[in-house]
Amino acid sequence: MTTEAQTPEAQAEIVGQDAASVPAEEPPRSLGGRIVDNVKSGNLGILPIVIGLAFIVAFFSFKATNFFTADNFNNIIVQMTGTTMLAFGVVFVLLLGEIDLSIGYLSGIAALTVAELQLPGSGHQYPGLVAIVIAVGLCTFIGGVQGSIVALVGVPSFVVTLAGLLIWQGVILQVLEIKGVIVIQDAWINDMAVYHFSKSAGWIIAAAVTGLYAIGTLGSILGKRRAGVANRNPFLIGAKILGVAVACFGTVAICNHANVPNGLPLAGVLVVIFLLGLTFLAKRTPFGRHVYAVGGSAEAARRAGISVARIRILVFMISGGMAGVGGVILAARLNSVDLNVGGGTLLLDAIAAAVIGGTSLFGGRGEVRSGLIGALVIVTVSNGLDTAGYKTGTIYIVTGVILLLAVTLDTIARRLQVRSGR
Amino acid sequence: MSESRLLQIRGLSKSFGSVQALTDVDFEVRDGEVMSLVGDNGAGKSTLIKCVAGIHGYDDGEIDFDGKRVHIHGPKDAAKLGIEVVYQDLALCDNLDVVQNMYLGRETRDWLFRLNEPAMEQRTAETLKSLAVTTIRSIRQPVASLSGGQRQSVAVAKAVQWNSRLVILDEPTAALGVAQTEQVLALVRRLAERGLAVVLVSHNLHDIFEVATRITVLRLGRNVGVYEREKTTQQEIVQAITAGAPTKVSGIPAAAEAPAS
Hints:
The structure holds 2 protein chains of 2 kinds. Chain A is mostly helical. Chain A has one domain: ABC transporter involved in vitamin B12 uptake, BtuC (Orthogonal Bundle), CATH 1.10.3470. In chain A, 74% of the residues lie in helices and 1% in strands. Chain A contains 18 helices and 2 strands. Chain A has helices at residues 2-5, 8-15, 31-40, 47-63, 70-95, 103-117, 128-153, 157-179, 187-194, 199-227, 234-257, 266-284, 286-296, 298-303, 308-334, 346-356, 369-387, 392-420; strands at residues 182-183, 336-337. In chain A, strands 1-2 form a two-stranded antiparallel ribbon. The longest helix of chain A is centred in the middle third of the chain and has 29 residues, at 199-227. Chain A is globular, with a radius of gyration of 23 Å. The N and C termini of chain A lie close together (9 Å). Chain B is an alpha/beta fold. Chain B has a single domain, classed as 3-Layer(aba) Sandwich (Rossmann fold), CATH 3.40.50. In chain B, the strands form 2 sheets. Chain B has a 6-stranded mixed β-sheet, with helices on both faces. A 4-stranded antiparallel β-sheet of chain B has the order 2-1-4-5, with helices on one face. Chain B is globular, with a radius of gyration of 19 Å. The two termini of chain B are 26 Å apart. Chains A and B meet through helix 1, helix 2, helix 10, helix 13 and helix 14 of A and helix 2, helix 4 and helix 6 of B.
């Protein structure tokens, strides 16, 4: 579409060095026009996935009697939290065009650490919060070590983290073969997954999140206006704030309506906190900008004076840290740690979530929120099939088909983008 | 003439293992001139500019910048001196927009350590305007969607917005059509008019004769001549490129025979 703007007249102007012809301020485009523009340039955004999710929800509402209930909604939030946390970390790694296969069992290491550190009578019992901090810190450190091998030595991340997958699985087996199951009794740790806010606290949280979003958005509008830079369509900004408000208050309303468990789950609030924090990191800080740059072209980033190795190591630390957070929440949900911790489809679900949500495997393209959206799709599908009485095999097949569809759509969009540019 | 000499290289040598890429090369650029660097493939053009840009170390030789002896050990040293290089492959991130690319690695932040987007966007618009780069519809579109000439313009604008004094352009028109080449050459002329020293590496003699003030010819890693554009012909340059003898000619002082330091 930009090449079309390159009309002969425009060319003639340049050749004639008509310095007076300043680029005309782009008029704010209508919402419909923007969507058409975006789709043409291969940026489908979250639209297809939201439509898909609506279909999935509608389908299971008819198929299973107890799917479309407030209780199950509340349940899904807690179910998806662990995978979502891992997926947030995966988004950063994918933005670099790397992969981290170790996060599944790394989350198991966090679960094991936190369970071991809260064990009464073990001689090394710590308060729940301290245990959580140590477990997440350990995983961040391990991520940093793996990242250093990738960034400084130059071993492909696939190999390093595959080795990590085997090593951390081995460590978990070695420890738990002797101990069997470790039960988590510490209330602080278990609350990560089982605590639900009271009704009024839920409303206050919804209001706070909406308010913060609105203040942040208005602040950036004022900043742009002060600098004399074009703002986006005001209707679109208004619609976005309204959308966030509806999502927040709607979620709290449904959670408060649920019987068992009643109220907004702490796990859901943690997801929102990490979503906002990591989105800020990715979009509003130089570090995040550099992550996108390294993923887009490592050579260009290096020439711009960015320390590519530093960015790589930090991203693997984020990935490890988020695996740690997810691992603690998953352990808290089960109140225990056993031999299966960190295994199963956790790793692949997390990667699939990030990809389904629209993050590219080739680096440089994606958003933190895609981890949340993808995890929502995966967990909703598996929860729906489960409630409708399907077996595990069906769940895997359907998840696989959705992953394939999402990536195919994304690839087609990319090809359109290449065609529309240059 | 010597007081306006911004970059002066004497006796630069560089080898990659057993391959002698540069042998005792002299090179100079003055403020406000477009110095063209030409030579056949493998003549050492890229190696020379990479030495100046700090990408390669050099084995031997002296580099004076603005009258002072300098040692360039990395891209950051070069940037600190005000030397900016626009590479053949542009070194732009396709997935980032124009503003993000212009400020890559030197983002401005506000008091909350957030990226100061409005300020960056405003200054980018000003820079592009001052260089009369007017075809870019929106500076918030990804670089991937720009045409070759537009990309080249962004790369050049990125190089000059940091108070740079010497801009090195490596084959800036190699992949461009006629109109876009014209656009980039006009930009090169504007840089020199602003008083910047410009080094233009190119294969295209037509382009060179359109914008260059002087022409340095390299052949097999040696300097075979410096020519004033006004006083030479394309034929003479072609002759020098293909068969020039390594002599130190007009414009280069005799002191160029620098001892190994």
